[in-house]
Amino acid sequence: MASGGYVTLDQVAQHAGVSLATASRVLNGSTRQVGEKLRRRVTASAHELGYLPNASAQTLARNTSTLVGLIVHDIADPYFSSIAAGVARIAEDHGLVVVLGTTGRTPQRENELLSMLRAHRARAVVLAGSRTIDDSTTRRLGEEIRMFTKQGGRVACVSQEGLPADTVVPDNRAGATELAHRLIAQGHRRFAILAGPTDLYTARDRLDGFHSALHAAGIELAPHNVMHGAFTRDGGYESTRRLLAAGTDATCLFVVNDVMATGAMAALRDAGLRVPEDLSVAGFDDIPTLRDLTPALTTVRLPLEWMGETAARLALSEDNSDAPQTVEVAGEVVLRESTAVPTS
Amino acid sequence: MASGGYVTLDQVAQHAGVSLATASRVLNGSTRQVGEKLRRRVTASAHELGYLPNASAQTLARNTSTLVGLIVHDIADPYFSSIAAGVARIAEDHGLVVVLGTTGRTPQRENELLSMLRAHRARAVVLAGSRTIDDSTTRRLGEEIRMFTKQGGRVACVSQEGLPADTVVPDNRAGATELAHRLIAQGHRRFAILAGPTDLYTARDRLDGFHSALHAAGIELAPHNVMHGAFTRDGGYESTRRLLAAGTDATCLFVVNDVMATGAMAALRDAGLRVPEDLSVAGFDDIPTLRDLTPALTTVRLPLEWMGETAARLALSEDNSDAPQTVEVAGEVVLRESTAVPTS
DNA sequence: ACTCTGTAGGAAAGTGTTTTCCCGATGCGG
DNA sequence: CCGCATCGGGAAAACACTTTCCTACAGAGT
Fold first, then answer.
1. Does the CB of B65 have a partner CB in chain A at under 8 Å?
2. pTM (predicted TM-score)
């Protein structure tokens, strides 16, 4: 309790009557052995004094920390919190601490957070989100990632290809294509799409996959049946309002993610339309928290928590092959009550 | 790039032709002034070399870090992720980094995480969760908290009273009481309750508040109409199954949190019962993500994100009065479609 | 002119670990 | 019985900063 409430290794060493070096060797038990007697004395003293190593000092001396970063857009979004849960689990298994950074969907903030983590000598970072088509921000982020890896850290991304890092990426295109096939098989011929932001790859890929399946089936998709909007619940609500205001003849509405689809269903309900009787609705992601919506949402299931785990594992693997690995995960179409055979 | 990819303050100082001290003073610009010329030279060199301060070294030298801890049971639970979002926002506003720890509802893990944060010299910690009636774990946690504050950190709790720390606590009892009044006013006389875990104060208080309101209104609550179970979606589902299996004459089911209520509604649906026609259902919390359930859930609204923000603000306030502050937040009853006038 | 004060800059002493040397003792084969 | 490697232990040098203390100097007051 001498200097401000801390007990240092020095004090432990003195209390045990050994040198600083010996105390250090006992209390993190690496490379070298220390005799049974002294070992006992040291552990006893450490326990008695309530010694707790100073993590910063250790990080400084070892030049490697026990921190692993996690960067998401918005932790309250269940998509990200599911991934976060997976990352947290793996980090914990490794005895590491996760540092949570939220960007609020500001690209520049990703860079700031990454350099903050670099300053902390974080061992690894999991970057969840989605790239936009803005090449310059992607390039800057890539640069930041390179600096991070240069300092001995590893980076893994979820759902963002094209960066110099390991990646776990859902096959958005194939998932959307498969979903389209199933909906066509159900009898739908006239579709509308809530396509999310125009500049987000995740949204674009899902749109493209769906669109190309329609095209292959000889189904036209009128431009006025494609609505862009924010990638959030409220974005879905608002996009739906616009779609309805403009008028649509679709029997099925594909929404590029579940969170937006939730807003869409709310908007349809508010507009007095029944799902699926008046309009079928399908989403993407299969967010666990949203599985209890009624009608239950037809969607493409992604193993979000597993994706977080996998990204964390990649980021923490010792594998030093510099070629970035990519793990592609397939989505599984889950037909539920929100889509039905069209009546008209 | 000399030693392993880092550029140190030393290198910046040499490059700028000044002393280490001067470089330090320029690059964190506190207490002392340094002349315009040198200041320019240093910043220029720092920029040119791509200098990034070593956070561990700074923490060590300053004996205070930029870390703030956040301890939750499960980040995938929307209750906690909402709180987390609030904490993250405030931490970010203060230029701090949040360290996320998840306990998986293991009390002991809270202590581990807290001491980990102590080892990192974290500035503050927000502890979200709920105390159980197990006094010994509470006492141990209190002890750990005291050690943390002794080292100059601050701790704020969400929803856990009786700890030596600032607290943001919803008035669970009053909220449940008010909810009961409203449901009674709606015409309900026979209730069932999914009461959650027996040992969790949050669950107990809500049960008690509801129960005492019934009692005051002269309404009996038969023991077989109170089901205990896990504080999760699946716990709600399973509790409901048991309730139905045992048979109930209730017209209204009060579930002590929204996440459980979600499971309850699913179980009722699976059992062919309609909400609210066959049975009204009410929850507690008003989880944002669950507001789009149908029928929309009658519940008691808690400003979760605000609670997280407030806890973070308390934990980061400079106010050094050692008397722990308590901020009590009232819940607001929100009647929605899941409860209706009973027909039988 | 001479002290006095305030200020800009640098040298060096922490900050709490880890780790590299170095040293003495012990065990062992030749 | 003597070198020789090994092994347990300690002194001290990093690690990358912050901060105290000291010095030189410029301007001001008498």
1. yes
2. 0.93
